[in-house]
Amino acid sequence: MKLQLALDFSDMNENLRVLEETADLVDIIEYGTGALIPNGYAGLKALRERYPEKTILCDQKIMDGGYIFTEQQAECGADIVTVLAAAEDETIMLAVKAAREKKIKVMADLCGVKESLKRAEEIKKLGVDYICVHMATDGSHEKSGAPVLQKISDRLGNKICAIAGSVTPEKCREIKKLEPGIVIVGSYITKAENCRKAAEQIRNALK
């Protein structure tokens, strides 16, 4: 299982501070939506310049403009882009097309999708590399996260799956039984008094 760290501070200095403490403990750096909106692609470029060897995901949550936005993010340093599973098939297909041309990957986020398993099967056929079960901050998604992950893993395989949303060491102990390809952690690490210690706790819980 790969550990993805979601950085969502509007102040890029805060995101960089967290990374200084934790970068060696994470596999994927996520340039989160909360950081992207105020900082634009300049923040993505800054992360790529600072961490040239790391896998970087840009969480723009593409809903339209699949080709152009994927292309732009790749050119700014992203290794993985995100598209909403609720987007039109054509949008997802174009994102995948651009990703293949740029030799990067696409993660589809199931946030807001009601028939998660059905849509997961559809978007896998469209060529996405990862499918994220997102236990969103708003709404009542948290309780459904693990069962949905289980269903998708059983049908499509666990390596394509990622899980995000309020992930803690306690939840990791449940999640690791399903062995998703990626576990995404944000505020448990980024808002901790000791970010490195929090990241180590997550790592240990996933062992």
From TrEMBL:
<dbReference type="InterPro" id="IPR013785">
    <property type="entry name" value="Aldolase_TIM"/>
</dbReference>
<dbReference type="Pfam" id="PF00215">
    <property type="entry name" value="OMPdecase"/>
</dbReference>
<dbReference type="InterPro" id="IPR001754">
    <property type="entry name" value="OMPdeCOase_dom"/>
</dbReference>
<dbReference type="InterPro" id="IPR011060">
    <property type="entry name" value="RibuloseP-bd_barrel"/>
</dbReference>
<dbReference type="GO" id="GO:0004590">
    <property type="term" value="F:orotidine-5'-phosphate decarboxylase activity"/>
</dbReference>
<keyword id="KW-0456">Lyase</keyword>
<protein>
    <submittedName>
        <fullName>Orotidine 5'-phosphate decarboxylase</fullName>
        <ecNumber>4.1.1.23</ecNumber>
    </submittedName>
</protein>
<feature type="domain" description="Orotidine 5'-phosphate decarboxylase">
    <location>
        <begin position="2"/>
        <end position="202"/>
    </location>
</feature>
